Amino acid sequence: MKHVTFWGSAALIAALAAPVAAQETTADTVIATVGETEITLGEMIIARAQLPQQYQSLPADVLFEGVLEQLIQQQLLADAVETAPARVDYALRNERRSLLAGEEIDALSVASMTDEAVQAAYDAKYENAESETEFNAAHLLVETLEEAEAAKARIDAGEEFGEVAKEVSTGPSGPNGGNLGWFGAGQMVTPFEDAVMAMEVGGVSDPVETQFGFHVINLIEKRVKEAPELDAVRSELMAEVQEAAIQARLAALTEAADIVTPEEGTIDPELLGDLSLLEPK
Questions:
Q1: Could you give the CA distance from residue 47 to residue 42 in angstroms, rounded to a whole number?
Q2: pTM of the predicted model, to two decimals?
Q3: 225 contact partners, CB below 8 Å, separation of at least 6
Q4: Dihedral sign, Cα of residue 98, residue 99, residue 103, residue 106
């Protein structure tokens, strides 16, 4: 309701809202009436929760007055509509569907999120996983094979790899001696990765061509990557457990439901953008 003022007259609120004893209130407690329509505390709680973040830290009395005024003004305007457009009914159906689906997802997420489920997900992902080797390497990158061979010859003659890389490399790592840090399988282009995997620690490769140019690689060290501690990946595993529970529930519901969809070609997909269909005929 972008045209409905959030902040309004406290006098209007005082006139419409009857005092309510705090110890007697529930979500169904009527805070105000507009004509025949009741505005309950539950409706106000939902409206307050949906306010933009910048309003959330305001004092409770300010929020109470502002939220109530907003709902009163919305009701006044809603009552002024003589015939509700069809699009409102369609929007309400979608909103109800979405909210109820969200409730089921929340319930599934809570029910699935046990220590046992997280531990099982961890074991399945890491306990029997094949060990992965990581590499720490440096490289220099030049445009031509001749330049790469010349750089390799200088290194073979005793010059420090990093100093040669700083001088001749055109890659972004050149200024720091070509150091690439640690990386694993799949993080480098295939010819580069293949060359690294075939090298011994401390070795310097012959020129390796990729789409970026010609590389000379120095394998500094390598290590076997250990499985992370459970706590380090707990959030990731929790998300995976929740998603698995939701997908399993959807699969079961889909299997049990009688779902009918249109045959291909019977509905023009372009109709999805035709807002005129929502207008009264």
A1: 9
A2: 0.60
A3: 131, 132, 133, 134, 184
A4: positive
What confidence tens digit (pLDDT) does each residue in 57-99 have? 999 999 999 999 999 999 999 999 998 889 999 999 999 999 9
CA distance 216 to 140: 5
Q: Is the dihedral of CA 66, 72, 76, 79 positive or negative?
A: positive
Q: Is 53 exposed, middle or buried (CB count within 10 Å of its CB: 0-12, 13-18, 19+)?
A: exposed
Q: How many other CB atoms are there within 10 angstroms of residue 87's CB atom?
A: 13
Alpha-carbon Rg for the chain in angstroms? 33
Residue 111, C-beta contacts closer than 8 angstroms, at least 6 positions apart: 245
Residues 6+ apart with CB under 8 A from 131: 224, 225
